[in-house]
Amino acid sequence: MLLYNIALAFKARYQQLNEQLLHVNTGTAKKNSVYFIKEIGRLSRLLGEMVGIFNNVFGLPLVFIIGRCVIKTLASLIFFTSTLYIDNDSLKERLVISSVAQTVFIIASTSLLILACDAARSESYKTVFLCYKLREKFPDKSEEQKELLQLAQIVEVNKANFSAADFFDVNRNTLFGIFGTITTYLIVTIQFNENTKSQ
Quick one: which of 118, 140, 99 has its CA closest to 91? Predict the structure, then answer.
């Protein structure tokens, strides 16, 4: 849950950064818009560095968390398929409920972590879009337009990209990869169990 909370905090910070950027052209920020744009660039760089530190510190644990999810889910599903051949209905029911509950918990907790990392990444990508969108609101060749272009370039370089020790990126594609792997191995296990039982 610690990693999930940290990923959500990154998402919230990027959302706040985007909200501040939207207010650059309005109210009191309009007078000091160049200063605010530079400050947002500084904050964006800091967030990018923090994501890099997150990757360095928690990259390897992310590999193990995701690997554990796949292995435990497969073990639970294999156990589930093997309980189908138990004759005692009461015992069978309890084992099936236990196996399904464990599988749902493991998949849900890992999925939440992956989706939180992906949401933070998506929020950081929105900042570049907002910079280009806001450039249209300022006069051509103005100081604000130049600063927004520089900010877009800074944010482009410092986008949040969560990785598991540089083995793979942690995003929605990772989640689909996990489900694909689990499904493939489950099908192979079911076929193997049926071949073993028929012999």
Answer: 99
**pTM of the full structure:** 0.82
Taking the C-alpha atoms of residue 11 and residue 153, their distance in angstroms, rounded to an integer, is 20
- C-beta separation of 62 from 165 below 8 A: yes
Token pair recorded at residue 165? 């020790």
Each of the 199 residues of the chain gets a pLDDT tens digit; together they read 788 999 999 999 999 988 888 887 654 555 678 888 888 889 889 999 999 999 999 999 999 999 988 888 888 877 777 766 667 777 777 777 877 888 888 899 999 999 999 999 999 999 888 888 888 888 888 888 888 888 888 888 888 899 998 899 999 999 999 999 888 888 887 787 776 666 6
CB within 8 Å of 17: residues ≥ 6 apart: 40, 43, 44, 47, 127
Distance of alpha carbon 112 from the chain centroid: 8
